[in-house]
Amino acid sequence: MENQFPDSRSQQRAGYFPVTGAHLYTVLHEVKDPVARVLLVGPFASERHNAYLPWVRWARYLAAENIEVLRYDYRGVGESTGVFEHMTFADWSEDVRLLYAWLADRAPHVPVLLHGVGVGAILAARAFDEGLGDGLLLWSPPANANQALRATLMRWVGLEQIFKFGRDQKSAADYIRELEQGSPLEVDGYSWSRDLWRDSMRFTLPAALAGEESAALAYKRPVRIVKLTSDAAPLAKGGRVGYDDLKDFTWLFAPNRDWIVAVASQSSRGVAYA
Amino acid sequence: MRDAVGDRELIALDGLGIRLQGTYHLPADRQSGEPTEPANLDRVGVLFVNSLSMPRAASGDSAVRWAEAIANQGYPSFRIDLPGLGDSEGEASIDLLDIVNAGGFASVAAAAAGQLVKRFGLSGVVFFGHCAGAVSALYAGAASGDCKGLILLDPYFYVPLVERPRVRQRLSDWARSSRVGRRASNLYDRIRNFSSVLRGSALPANANGQLLARWKQVASTGLPILLLKAPGIKAQGSKPRLGEFDYIDHVVNLAGRKKSIAVEFVESADHSFANCEGREAVEQHIAGWLAANFPLPDFKFSTERIGRLGASENRDHSGKSQEAPADRFCAMGGR
Asked: What is the pTM of this model?
């Protein structure tokens, strides 16, 4: 099979990282003398599976460009241990803080950036808002986590309706009503509780990160916000479900890599950002 | 970072031309939290392979739960990412579905099984696959001298279209959402049924002859095979939709007199088998099948486990079809 992004300069190391009551599955794309390090905060729950291939490719692409990358699975999701239903946004926020600390502690010291997509963008943004990270790259950050959950729900309902006819078809509003009344809803194999649904409404993107200009003023650290279109599916909504993950994403990766390299260069030279 | 926690351990398979990443679930009587190599387990292991481009955890992390359940029953289980998939090295091709359908992963999966047998002292391997993964598992089983059995979830024996024509997709949407559409769909099914009656037992034009040949090769030897089937769109219980060719019936007959095939209809599942009820039903079917075909006389079952095995024996074969949601990452595209 052709290797589109040769990974010769990096070594991929999978491991388990201990957190309270669980272990996070992590993959470090290790680089010998990196120009920067990036913590990737990936797609949430079932979105992880849909977007896994482009997400791994993105990590390898960066590593091949001398940028060390750490990616991981959320607590209770994928290869990480823990029970998804027991997890909260506070747990997933703690994951980001702990992994950031671990990555930032690695030698040699180079700029460390946070990067997230979807719910991961909110998690990365909130960590950045707490003062972590020399730069922040957001792909399609929703205003709150509920927006992302709704988008996942809409897609799940659409697929579920393939097997149902007429009156047997339930709308997204029906499912949301049941969820709000306290019935857990299983979406793509993950059980969503009423608490998760309610918490997701309160789990918001920091106000200053609504736009790059307001972010620059507020944080004095570089922020890039990219709204992905359906061309970027499955990293974004839309597209041809189930097949788009195999396509070439260089058009998306290249400008974002350039931005990371520029941030790392400025940060290393101590260039003030305003 | 650790390589092992509790009952699971990360493994890498080298020497196959490409490094494969996987997770090993330690059998319950060996779960010490420490790496067990070198080991001489002297029992069969269950090897999961990817379903199309899904990572090795599979839809809703169902493969993680099944692998854990199997390990709790005493059988080591391994989930590996095939080349270019999940965390394994390589780059998946845009023609992934065609590669799977042509058995493109057979040799590497068979070689991986060989390595695991050697490294963990296994008596053999049961390949486990779902949908496109079942196709890969079947090809791998035919290519591997270490294969002792197959667990296949919703395998398909035809060559599916990579992408459905848009007009056809819209017609399907219309048929589902309107009364007139439903009648038109039923009429279409009857016409297809009429033509299938005329065709007799002849295979449809898009049957995957190469895969059917591999099936015959392995199934006719008496290799234990567990075949689990979820309800399909407009299916009639375990039988396919009116007018569709009954591949399961065909392959069971194709296997000949020595066959050892258990076909189970998992009424509560959707095609992904990732929904809670479906997942648990699969777990129970597998537990019973493994215990019957690969007994572990020295392994102590827990009381809870025995209770669950008992429950699985009372299977519902009522034949009622329950409508179920699709798996978005399905090679059959939810058809």
From this structure: 0.88
